[in-house]
Design a protein that fits this description.
The chain has 205 residues and is mainly alpha-helical. 56% of the residues lie in helices and 10% in strands. The protein has seven helices and five strands. It has a three-stranded antiparallel beta sheet with strand order 4-3-5. Strands 1-2 form a two-stranded antiparallel sheet. A hairpin with a 2-residue loop joins strand 3 (67-71) and strand 4 (74-78). Helix 1 (43-63) runs antiparallel to helix 3 (93-122). The longest helix is centred in the middle third of the chain and has 30 residues, at 93-122.
Length: 205
């Protein structure tokens, strides 16, 4: 099978800031003067570190309370899952579903996909390379919607403040969840998707 030449074989690499095709001999991009790298530096180590840190912070994000609700003098603290149950029982199934997807489904998908991409890329696996590249783009896309849970808590807190004798206050768990969102977004940014295709280049050589 005749494959087109790789950019590395032509002595070219893309600038990570502006996308300009630069020569390896150029230390800086001629267009934006950014430092040119053939690949994202230390992609495996940085992505693994950020992913593991996100998983560690995800534990207190789910076990610690994310909000305190005071309704007519009766105060309760809710974790993410207990908050979902409370909203569901209260008839706000749409908010409950939104929080569940943003707080449980999306982070777990990101953990699984990033772990899968790292393991298969490090093993130079040729399994479903095109599909794995699409998975990476999917993780990048859903990463921007992960803060929905934080926004929903803030919105509900603002709305409840208008009701007499009722209040909602954020708790420490929401901070841990915000850290998880930032870490997973950074992990997706530090992973170099071109590592997926290194197995193909390795076999050609």
């Amino acid at each position: 099978m005749n494959l087109p030449p790789y950019a590395g074989q032509l002595g070219l690499c893309l600038c990570h800031d502006c996308g300009y095709a630069c020569h390896f001999c150029d230390a800086h991009c001629p267009r934006c003067d950014a430092l040119v790298h053939r690949r994202k530096p230390n992609s495996y180590a940085r992505t693994w570190a950020l992913l593991i840190a996100a998983i560690v912070f995800y534990i207190p994000a789910n076990t610690l309370p994310v909000m305190y609700t005071d309704m007519f003098g009766s105060g309760t603290e809710n974790t993410i899952l207990s908050g979902v149950i409370e909203f569901w029982k209260g008839g706000s199934w749409d908010i409950a579903l939104l929080i569940f997807i943003a707080s449980v489904v999306v982070p777990c998908i990101k953990f699984f996909v990033l772990g899968l991409l790292l393991i298969t890329a490090q093993r130079r696996s040729r399994w479903a390379m095109r599909e794995r590249a699409r998975l990476y783009r999917f993780v990048e896309l859903i990463g921007y919607w992960s803060m929905l849970d934080v926004l929903v808590v803030a919105l509900v807190a603002a709305l409840v403040q208008f009701q007499a004798l009722s209040s909602i206050e954020p708790r420490i768990g929401i901070l841990f969840f915000g850290v998880v969102v930032v870490l997973t977004m950074m992990a997706a940014m530090t992973f170099d998707p071109r590592l997926i295709w290194d197995a193909e280049e390795y076999d050609v050589r």
